[in-house]
Every structure is written in structure tokens, then in C-alpha cells.
UniProtKB/TrEMBL annotation:
InterPro entries per the UniProt record, alphabetical: NAD(P)-bd_dom_sf, SDR_fam
Keywords on record: Oxidoreductase
Keyword Endoplasmic reticulum: no
Source organism superkingdom: Bacteria
Taxonomic placement: Bacteria, Bacillati, Actinomycetota, Actinomycetes, Kitasatosporales
One Pfam family from the record: adh_short
GO molecular function: oxidoreductase activity
Protein name: NAD(P)-dependent dehydrogenase (Short-subunit alcohol dehydrogenase family)
Family of the protein in this entry: Belongs to the short-chain dehydrogenases/reductases (SDR) family.
């Protein structure tokens, strides 16, 4: 797969995709490239102004694209339920769990969860469960792709302190939320296999891609030096969002993707064309994934049928 580019994406005509966080960064690129290949794409975004602007931009860059914005705030479980209830498509071929936040100052979601864990994991856990009947309706070829990070190596999930109430450390909690993404994928893949489903659950990470994730936390706390430093690194060290989106696009469309596969850039988890990525051993633990799953069902109130 080395050398794989967006030009290698198979025809997506007749397929419907939901991409969370599709208004910017790798989410926008993922949505645009799927639309270019003929998919109907739902841009699931928190901010309506940015979401509608992204819809117009995709139409301009991919003439004839079938694309629509729909509001979704992953930090609000009511919004997640509303999105799933109001989605007009009876079947769903691709769910790209892309949206995320990174290294924020300590904040809470609408439902009281730590913001990184609540947005990056719990919101997507609930969304996937609520959309699972539509994924099943698509039959063979349906996929759930959850975007993790190479920084999941920072820490595994602590089941005794999921919200990091004891001592909040922004980067460690970010790593935990990204490990949660991989544990979710592992358990979802195991359950789909056990029931004989042909839906594939896979994961991806963008490496070091230049997006607004790196600057948001610093901007929220008005740490100008940190924001400038992130902007400098984005400019001179990071790869482009177009390159960062390739692992997600590969996981969503390549014919050889299997259950619980994890893709990232081929150069040291950092940059380059997509390939199978290294992952921490703890993200392959059946015990840890089952425990997180049970806790996620309890916290979100969403149970998978």
C-alpha cells in the first residue's frame, strides 16, 4: 500500500458516508475525497456556520457532489441522539468517527464528562450505536472507521478514573481518549465478528498533520507562546491535511481492510503514505475493551443491539 494516494480510492457511487468533524482539517479532506468519488456525504459538524461553509466549499471543489451539512455536537448526547434520529438515509455505508479535541484545559461536556474523553470516545460510541441499524442495512461493505492518534502511546485508559478527576493532565488524558478509540474499535470488531456481521470496524491516525487541533487548547487559555509554537511546528514539520487524511480514506475504502486493522503514515507514525500502524499492546486487550464498553454503555445510555 506504500504510495497509495487519494487517486486510488475506488468508486463510491451509491454509497452514503457520515464524517464527523468534517468542516476542517482531515475531516474536511476525507469528506471531499469521498464526495469526489461519488459518495453521498453527510458533514456532521458542531458549528452550523462552519458546517454550511464546508458544504459550499466541497460543492465548489467537487462539482456535482452530493453533500449535506447536519448539526452534531459530540459533547452533548442529546445532540448525538437528535442527529441519529433526524438522519434521512435509511442505510449507511461508511461512518467516519473523525472529530476530536486535543490537550484542552479541563472542561466538561454538557453531560458532565471530561471533555476529551466525552467528545473523542463517548460521543462516538453513542453515535455508532445509534447508527448501527443503518450500517447493518447497508450489508456487505459497510465500515466504521474511528480516528485515533499515535499519541495513544502516552497512556491507557484508567477504568477507575475515566474522567481524570483525581489529577488532570491534558496530554495524558488526550492519550487515554485515543487509546479508548482503539479499545472501542477492538471490541466493536470482536462483537461484529461474533455475530457474523460483515460490517468492518477499523481505525486510523493521521500522523502529524497540520490542523487546528494543535492550537485550540493554547488559544482557549490565551497562551500565546504555545499557540505560536504549535503554528511554527505545523508549518515546518507537519504534513498537510491532504496527506493526513489518507489513512482514514484507506481504512474506509481499500479492499483489503480487515477487522480491527489500524492504519497510519508509514514513516515513524509521522508522515507518508498509509500502512498498517504500530499500536500499544493495551489497545488489544479483550478485558480492557470489554470493561470500557460496559462503562460506555452505562455512561451514555446507549446499548448495542
Amino acid at each position: 500500500m506504500t504510495g497509495w494516494t487519494a487517486n486510488d480510492i475506488p468508486d463510491q457511487s451509491g454509497r452514503t458516508a457520515v464524517v464527523t468533524g468534517a468542516n476542517s482539517g482531515i475531516g474536511y479532506i476525507t469528506a471531499r475525497e469521498l464526495a469526489r468519488r461519488g459518495a453521498r456525504v453527510v458533514l456532521a459538524c458542531r458549528d452550523a456556520t462552519r458546517g454550511k461553509a464546508a458544504e459550499e466549499r466541497v460543492r465548489a471543489e467537487a462539482p456535482g457532489a452530493d453533500v449535506v451539512f447536519a448539526p452534531l455536537d459530540l459533547a452533548d448526547l442529546t445532540s448525538v441522539r437528535d442527529f441519529a434520529a433526524e438522519l434521512t438515509d435509511d442505510r449507511l455505508d461508511l461512518l467516519i468517527n473523525n472529530a476530536g479535541v486535543m490537550a484542552l484545559p479541563q472542561r466538561r461536556t454538557v453531560d458532565g464528562f471530561e471533555m476529551q474523553f466525552g467528545t473523542n470516545h463517548l460521543g462516538h460510541f453513542a453515535l455508532t450505536g445509534l447508527l448501527l441499524p443503518r450500517l447493518r442495512a447497508a450489508g456487505h461493505g459497510a465500515r466504521v472507521v474511528t480516528v485515533s492518534s499515535g499519541l495513544h502511546f502516552l497512556s491507557t485508559v484508567d477504568p477507575r478514573d475515566l474522567n481524570m478527576d483525581h489529577r488532570y493532565r491534558r496530554w495524558i488524558q488526550y492519550g487515554r481518549s485515543k487509546s479508548a478509540n482503539l479499545l472501542f474499535t477492538h471490541e466493536l470488531a470482536r462483537r461484529l465478528t461474533a455475530e457474523g456481521s460483515r460490517i468492518v470496524a477499523a481505525a486510523a491516525h493521521p500522523g502529524y498533520a497540520a490542523t487546528n487541533l494543535q492550537t485550540t487548547g493554547a488559544r482557549m487559555e490565551e497562551r500565546a507562546w504555545a499557540e505560536r509554537g504549535a503554528e511554527f511546528l505545523n508549518r515546518f514539520l507537519a504534513q498537510s491535511p491532504e496527506e493526513g487524511a489518507l489513512p482514514s480514506l484507506y481504512a474506509a475504502t481499500a479492499p483489503d481492510v480487515g477487522q480491527d486493522d489500524f492504519f497510519g503514515p508509514h514513516v515513524q507514525l509521522w508522515r507518508g503514505s498509509p500502512t498498517h500502524s504500530a499500536r500499544a499492546k493495551w489497545t488489544l486487550s479483550d478485558k480492557a475493551s470489554a470493561g470500557l464498553w460496559a462503562a460506555s454503555e452505562r455512561l451514555t445510555g446507549v446499548r448495542y443491539g
